[in-house]
């Protein structure tokens, strides 16, 4: 039986690229989305046209009840889970910390931190040998911002991704003996739509000069790192924070 991968926030960008590559490598794929239903369903149709098996489920990862329903839908469709890719994330308009209010911070941390924790919780319940599972892998999508800090732009987002780094390290050690590997990728400046939501659609072009390789990355380049961490070639890799940054 082919393995099952759940990718949160996968209607576009890094998540969609990961779903395509996973399907090409033989995974059955479940993707979640918050608002982009049409885009998510097109991705499912694309995967199925190529002979794969996929499911799209609406779920706001900031809402615990919706996360639980997401995993229940996965159980019903596939009956197992082998890999979780905690990809869902968001940022708000570029802003200095002194101008941020508590409501913004709550939104940023609810999606980027709490959502990832709850998804990891549900995945561990299904994959851990302690709970009768067969083991598996969790890959958290962090960001190079966690070590650069994103000053003047997204200090809150950077801090949220710092929390994901810490969760990756702690959870990896917590479940290692139960057959689950936990790692993170930390993308740098990547050509995705997330920059537009922060108010600067062309941000990659502005900052690419700070990247030693002299360019922004592509979503597919991050996806390849994610798939490597998920697979057997990374069988002795856990608690790793893998930068995909062009050397930045």
UniProtKB/TrEMBL annotation:
Keyword annotations of the record: Oxidoreductase
Pfam family for this entry, one: adh_short_C2
Matching PROSITE patterns: ADH_SHORT
Protein name: SDR family oxidoreductase
Organism annotation: Stutzerimonas azotifigens
Lineage: Bacteria, Pseudomonadati, Pseudomonadota, Gammaproteobacteria, Pseudomonadales
Keyword Acetylation found: no
Xref: InterPro entries: KR_dom, NAD(P)-bd_dom_sf, Sc_DH/Rdtase_CS, SDR_fam
Record-stated family: Belongs to the short-chain dehydrogenases/reductases (SDR) family.
Domain Ketoreductase: 3-183
First and last residue of the signal peptide: none
Matches recorded under CDD domains: SDR_c
PANTHER family reported for this sequence: OXIDOREDUCTASE, SHORT-CHAIN DEHYDROGENASE/REDUCTASE FAMILY (AFU_ORTHOLOGUE AFUA_5G02870), SHORT-CHAIN DEHYDROGENASE_REDUCTASE FAMILY PROTEIN
């Amino acid at each position: 039986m082919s393995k099952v991968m759940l990718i949160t926030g996968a209607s576009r960008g890094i998540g969609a690229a990961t779903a395509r590559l996973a399907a090409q490598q033989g995974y059955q794929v479940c993707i979640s989305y918050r608002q982009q239903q049409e885009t998510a369903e097109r991705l499912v149709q694309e995967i199925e046209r190529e002979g794969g098996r996929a499911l799209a489920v609406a779920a706001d990862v900031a809402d615990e009840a919706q996360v639980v329903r997401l995993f229940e839908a996965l159980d019903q469709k596939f009956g197992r889970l082998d890999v979780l890719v905690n990809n869902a994330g968001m940022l708000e308009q570029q802003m200095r910390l002194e101008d941020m209010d508590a409501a913004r911070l709550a939104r940023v941390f609810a999606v980027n931190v709490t959502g990832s924790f709850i998804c990891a919780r549900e995945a561990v319940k299904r994959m851990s040998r302690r709970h009768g599972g067969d083991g598996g892998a969790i890959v958290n999508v962090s960001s190079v911002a966690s070590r650069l800090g994103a000053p003047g732009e997204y200090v809150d987002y950077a801090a949220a991704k710092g929390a994901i780094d810490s969760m990756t390290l702690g959870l990896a050690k917590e479940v290692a003996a139960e057959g689950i590997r936990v790692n993170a990728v930390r993308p740098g400046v990547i050509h995705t739509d997330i920059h537009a939501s922060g108010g600067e659609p062309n941000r990659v072009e502005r900052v690419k000069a700070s990247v030693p390789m002299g360019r922004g990355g592509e979503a597919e380049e991050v996806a390849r790192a994610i798939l490597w961490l998920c697979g057997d070639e990374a069988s002795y890799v856990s608690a790793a924070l893998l930068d995909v940054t062009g050397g930045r």
